Amino acid sequence: MKNIKALIVVTNHSDFNHPKAEPTGLWLSELTHFYDEFEAAGIPMEIVSIKGGKIPVDGRSLAGFMLDKATKKRYEDPNFMSLLENTKSISEVNWKEYDILFFAGGHGAMWDFANNEKLNTLTREMYEDGKLVSAVCHGVAALQNVRLSNGEYLIKGKRGTCFPYFDETIAGVKRFVPYNLEKIMKDRGMKYSKAFLPLSKHTVVDGQLITGQNPNSTTKTAQKALEILKKH
Predict the structure, then answer these.
(1) Is the residue at 1 inside a domain?
(2) How far from chain centre, in Å, is Cα 221?
(3) Distance (Å, whole) CA 150 – CA 114
(4) Taking the CB of residue 153, how many other CB atoms lie within 10 A of it?
């Protein structure tokens, strides 16, 4: 695919703002699985963050079975990890250079993705220009307050998904999260769906909008995005 470029946004936020909670940040596989698929397709990518600088990685995403073989390979690759050492901020981005906007998750995104006007504007402009907008898990938090030029929420009437509120209990952080993301998506008018079994893969495509339910859904989300981009 020629002349296609992807913009990946990751979180700068590193804690739950609660003394009893472990640090958080980017869930690494939600970045690496997307990156792997797009790199294999020969598509250049740029990783940026809300305010720029070094990206905090959630330690839970590096533990046990959470650190799958593909992500482990990236984590142990100093060249790849250097991409997270000094990211550009979203204010330095010219959105017209990109064809797809992707929001990687991790609980940190619930904070700095939610109410950032620059991010909301970037998302609206790319979406209204016909670009793809994609997000997985808590990265979907970036979409909750995006309004289109007509004043309607971008997600109103759109089919989509995000990390279910029930699954916050499984993750052990339900009492630490700042809000119920699933409820907000529904309140904003998203036609929300989720997999029957917790933590199962689930990706939803509605036109230019592509959302994945959890880390396990990232690869499929990236693949669906590539299918659409190949048609352009």
Answers:
(1) no
(2) 10
(3) 20
(4) 18
Q: Is the separation of the CB atoms in 122 and 95 below 8 Å?
A: yes
CATH number of the domain residue 44 falls in: 3.40.50.880
Count CB neighbours of 4 within 10 A: 17
Q: What is the CA radius of gyration of the chain?
A: 16
- For residues 66 and 29, is the Cβ–Cβ distance under 8 A? yes
In order, the DSSP letters of 14-60 are ---S-TTSPP--B-HHHHHHHHHHHHHTT--EEEEESS-BPPPB-GG
Q: Which domain holds residue 140?
A: 6-230
Distance CA 139, CA 25 (A): 11
Count of structural domains, the chain: 1
Residue 173, φ and ψ in degrees, nearest 5: -130, 15
For 189, the 3-state DSSP assignment is coil
Q: Rounded to whole angstroms, how far apart are CA atoms 139 and 58?
A: 14
Read off the pLDDT band of 231 (50, 70, 90).
confident
Residue 20 falls within a domain, yes or no? yes
Among left, alpha and beta (phi > 0; psi -120 to 50; other), residue 199 is: left
To 5 degrees, how large is the angle CA 79–CA 97–CA 142? 80
Residue-wise pLDDT for 134-181, tens only, equals 999 999 999 999 999 999 999 999 999 999 999 999 999 999 999 999
Rounded distance between C-alpha atoms, residue 202 and residue 214, angstroms: 8
β-sheet bridge partners, residue 46: 7
Asked if residue 192 lies in contact with residue 161, where contact means CB atoms within 8 angstroms, the answer is: yes
Report if pTM > 0.90. Answer: yes
